[in-house]
Amino acid sequence: MRFSVGYQLPGEDDDALVEIVADYLDHITEVYFPWADQPSGRAPLSTSHGYTDWTAQERLEADLRAFREMGIRLDLLFNANCYGGAAISRRLANQVRSVIDHLGEVVGGVDVVTTTSPFVAHTIKSHYPDIEVRASVNMRLGTVIAMQQMADLFDSYHVQRDYNRDLDHLAELKSWADSAGKRLVMLANSGCLAFCAGQSFHDNMVAHECEIDAATNVTDWIPHTCWRLMRDPTNWPMLLQSTWVRPEDLHYYESLFDVVKLATRMHARPRMVVDAYARGVYRGNLLDLLEPGLGLALAPHLLDNQRFPADWFERTSRCDRRCHTCNYCAEVLEQVTVTVG
pLDDT tens-digit profile of 243-272? Predict the structure, then answer.
């Protein structure tokens, strides 16, 4: 089991991802990245630090060449949830092909393209048969029938993260994937709520982030479901009912996934995340491992990762997900919550 890590342009005082990958080369197999000016599942790369970085493309290309020299597979993201009126256009198809062709010239090509768009998948399948086409986690493909419906377009699938703790269900997906010649990938450290009712709305906002930033918006309402809910401490058990897998429990998935995605594209401390999952242990606030972390929503409280009970994984990986009838996560929340300051 090795990791796929997300690319970000470092700030002035941050470690470059090239340095992190070099230090953990035995544990990392892929780097996933967006194109500088394209919408994706996160903020555009060129504006990810809150300002426009006109050197973003040049720096990205230099780093991609460095990853290529290390033997790291490159995973290009076209994973915006919405492409607007261009969704099935020749313009979008030409953009996708132009980026892939350019990367072929300047960094030696890409190995994987991850997308939420069946149209983008079709475009790549039609013109680049040697590139692995992977379904984004934001497609929420979590059943055999859903994967079958997309089998002509995708070679691999990020499993719907909401099923991360259902080992029997994951085993069923793995059995089908093996028989169909497909691969499965798991996202291990998502901080998103399980079965988030606001995900589609949020993902569409992210796809149109530049337009939203240019608009005069309502400021007295929180559009992000998780942040809105976390204002009420009675909702905090939802954090434990989520989809993340602790580094200590990742070994249970070795027979199911050979690639595990770590969310690091927007994380403030990507080295910490990679180190924790590479070593299989983390001593600190669990929320600090996740993206989004939501740590500020609970401050001055934190969730001590070392205080989880010994039966945590057994209980949560075999439960029936009827969280509204069960108090286990609420009880564990009391056990792991620490107040600081």
Answer: 999 999 999 999 999 999 999 999 999 999
pLDDT in tens, 119-142: 999 999 999 999 999 999 999 999
Amino acid residing at 109: G
Q: Report the pLDDT value the prediction gives residue 46, as an integer from 0 to 100.
A: 55
pTM of the predicted model over 0.85: yes
For residue 54, is pLDDT > 80?
Answer: no
194 φ, ψ (degrees, to nearest 5): -65, 135
176-183's contacts with Cβ under 8 Å and 24+ in sequence apart are: 176/144, 176/147, 176/148, 177/147, 180/147, 180/148, 180/151, 182/147, 182/151, 182/154, 182/155, 182/156, 182/157, 183/132, 183/155, 183/156, 183/157, 183/258, 183/259
3-state secondary structure 246-260: CHHHHHHHCCCCCEE
Residue-wise pLDDT tens digits, 148-199:
999 999 999 999 999 999 999 999 999 999 999 999 999 999 999 999 999 9
Kindly state whether residue 28 falls inside one of the protein's structural domains: yes
Cα 92 from Cα 114, distance rounded (Å): 15
Question: CA quadruple 95, 101, 105, 109: dihedral positive or negative?
Answer: positive
Does residue 279 sit within a domain? yes
Q: Which two tokens stand for residue 265?
A: 């594209």
Range of the domain at 263: 2-295
CA-to-CA dists, residue 187 to 55, 245, 274, 317, angstroms: 30, 9, 13, 16
Is 51 inside a domain boundary? Answer: yes
339, part of any domain = no
Rounded CA gap, 306 and 1, in Å?
23
All residues at 6 or more sequence positions from 157 whose CB lies less than 8 Å from its CB, including other chains = 134, 135, 141, 147, 150, 177, 182, 183, 184, 185
CATH number at residue 64: 3.20.20.60
Across 49-62, b (16+ Cβ under 10 Å) vs e yields beeebeebbeebee
